[in-house]
Amino acid sequence: MENESTKPSRFEIEQSPPAPKNRRVISGRRRVISGRLTRVFSEDYKKIEGRIFDPRGDHVKQWNKYFLVAALISIAIDPLFFYLPEVNDDEMCMGEDTSLKMTLTIIRSIVDVFYLIQIYVRFRTAYDAPSTRLLGRGELVLDPFKISQRYLKRDFTLDFLASLPIPQVLTWLPIFDNSEMLSTKTSVLYFIMFQFFIRLYLVFKLSSHIQQVTGVVAESTVAGAVYNIILFMLAAHVFGACYYLLSIERQGICWKEVCDLEEPGCGEKFFNCRYLDDPGRASWYQSSNISNICGRDTESYEYGMIFDAVNYGVASLDFFTKYSYCLWWGLRALSSRAEEVQASTFLAETHFCILISLTGLLLLAMVIGTMETYLESRTERLEEYRIQQMDTELWMNHRQLPHAMRERIRKHDLHKWIKHQKVDEEAILDELPLDIKRDIKQHICIELVRRVPLFDQMDERTVDAICERLTPVTCTPGTCLLREGDPTNEMLFIMHGNLDSYTTDGGRAGFWNECRIGPGDFCGEELLTWALDPRTTDTLPLSTRTVTSVAEVEAYALSSKDLKFVAKWFRKMHNKKLRHTFRVHSHQWRTWAACFIQSAWKRYRRRKLVGMLKVKQNYNYENGVGSEQRRNKRMGSEAHDCIRTPVPKPKDPDYFD
């Protein structure tokens, strides 16, 4: 008996006395009872194969958005049932739009399927165990029995009532089709509003749940503004349908009052278009004054707010025309908060106007607030840019900068605004975790860095380390990135645009070397030689060239500190295979090579000229010149025969295999 009392329940979740190992296994992340998993954290859910849904999973989030759209459609369909009654103004009777009823029944039945699917999803969606909840999240309970029990106690009743096909059933019942009482038909239609309000409550509840899980209902501010405008249009759609049904009801009341005065020859069945062929109805209608009392342009009966609907014969028009008119009326009433609505002393009209006024005030506040937020988000940066421009202009006037310099500053600010919308990319990346920052930098830079031939020869780890430390640089035409003779602070890798690179060899007279560099090239290579030198000092190398942008340039910069770090910890950069690539693409080496070729050519021409002169002057020196004189001349010619370039040979980086 003791063993039976201590035996754990099949669906037990909380702690219980120890059981055999093969019956219960408890770990820090999962709980298994009777060989069955009952709890799991959300991050471990993907390892489980089953039919239980994760409430924070992508599938449930996507389904909630689909179901929200279906729920909004169902809310929009329900008021359309109010347009089923139609009035025959010529015969003063009420009929029914059968084709509209069939169309609405089919559409509403299709939408009801989503509510049935929602019930199934709720029965199969896990929930957080309250006893393990930490910072709003806890272990997910996967036991189907516990999930069903919790759902049945909480939300099942409302979901079940919302899924019932109430409008379809009520409108197709004989009590609606064959009723002789006008009040019976309108009462049946008003009963549809009971389910409408249930579904409306579920829509707001689902929107709140989506906002709690994902942070927002809509992904962008524009979508949020459109969502609130849709709610405003939906409210106008509902009030317009109610206005139409109220006009039908008021006309029916007028007919009934006239009928009561003309008894016993009148009966309420005469107002149903099914009885148009009734002989008693035909004789009564010919003797009755109902067309003058309850017809158009009447002053005998006070219609109040529905006077326009009766006067224009809205109830006798086709569906699209009367729906458009009622929707316009609802929008006008909500926008003016019922100020333009002239209500009578009829109690239903008075309460209807009060409801319109309160709803319009609430919805206008929501829509205006959302639109204001959207406009502020769009204009905030523009206002910030305008204020910064004003401050810049005041500062330039105070410093009395020349016109050309002012234009350069304005052009730079405008270029930065157009390219980045004043977004500080580095500030955004600094707020992210290190692994996300690394992946983003690699995603953005890896293909661009591989375009640089020097980096294409390096291994993957070295390129990743360089990508992590690259910073974007943008400049306008005419910007000087490097100046000859200044310390080189960073190495630039060109991604887009063209630059002019030239040198005067320290200002030497008569020397000028210029070239054009573009995407895939780099500049500031003196810094690489400095970083790879194991005996280097903190003194930065001097730039041997001046680099100026010709057009808009986008590049990535690697600072001296970061380059030194990569060269120190990633020793594969010290590789002789990079020597040839570095020399081919280095403009400093290209300049030296060009000067060396020119000097070699000059030496060749000089030696050739000297040889020809020796042949011609051979006879002159056979007897007249002494041996000592010939020896000195030979030594002088050998010394003069060395190749001397105007540009010193660049220093090679410290490569080793």
TrEMBL record:
<feature type="transmembrane region" description="Helical">
    <location>
        <begin position="225"/>
        <end position="246"/>
    </location>
</feature>
<keyword id="KW-0407">Ion channel</keyword>
<feature type="transmembrane region" description="Helical">
    <location>
        <begin position="354"/>
        <end position="375"/>
    </location>
</feature>
<dbReference type="GO" id="GO:0016020">
    <property type="term" value="C:membrane"/>
</dbReference>
<feature type="domain" description="Cyclic nucleotide-binding">
    <location>
        <begin position="454"/>
        <end position="537"/>
    </location>
</feature>
<feature type="compositionally biased region" description="Basic and acidic residues">
    <location>
        <begin position="635"/>
        <end position="657"/>
    </location>
</feature>
<protein>
    <recommendedName>
        <fullName>Cyclic nucleotide-binding domain-containing protein</fullName>
    </recommendedName>
</protein>
<dbReference type="GO" id="GO:0012505">
    <property type="term" value="C:endomembrane system"/>
</dbReference>
<keyword id="KW-1071">Ligand-gated ion channel</keyword>
<keyword id="KW-1133">Transmembrane helix</keyword>
<feature type="transmembrane region" description="Helical">
    <location>
        <begin position="104"/>
        <end position="123"/>
    </location>
</feature>
<keyword id="KW-0812">Transmembrane</keyword>
<dbReference type="InterPro" id="IPR005821">
    <property type="entry name" value="Ion_trans_dom"/>
</dbReference>
<feature type="region of interest" description="Disordered">
    <location>
        <begin position="624"/>
        <end position="657"/>
    </location>
</feature>
<keyword id="KW-0813">Transport</keyword>
<keyword id="KW-0472">Membrane</keyword>
<dbReference type="GO" id="GO:0005216">
    <property type="term" value="F:monoatomic ion channel activity"/>
</dbReference>
<dbReference type="InterPro" id="IPR014710">
    <property type="entry name" value="RmlC-like_jellyroll"/>
</dbReference>
<feature type="region of interest" description="Disordered">
    <location>
        <begin position="1"/>
        <end position="22"/>
    </location>
</feature>
<dbReference type="InterPro" id="IPR000595">
    <property type="entry name" value="cNMP-bd_dom"/>
</dbReference>
<comment type="similarity">
    <text>Belongs to the cyclic nucleotide-gated cation channel (TC 1.A.1.5) family.</text>
</comment>
<dbReference type="InterPro" id="IPR018490">
    <property type="entry name" value="cNMP-bd_dom_sf"/>
</dbReference>
<feature type="compositionally biased region" description="Basic and acidic residues">
    <location>
        <begin position="1"/>
        <end position="13"/>
    </location>
</feature>
<feature type="transmembrane region" description="Helical">
    <location>
        <begin position="66"/>
        <end position="84"/>
    </location>
</feature>
<dbReference type="Pfam" id="PF00027">
    <property type="entry name" value="cNMP_binding"/>
</dbReference>
<keyword id="KW-0406">Ion transport</keyword>
<dbReference type="Pfam" id="PF00520">
    <property type="entry name" value="Ion_trans"/>
</dbReference>
<feature type="transmembrane region" description="Helical">
    <location>
        <begin position="187"/>
        <end position="204"/>
    </location>
</feature>
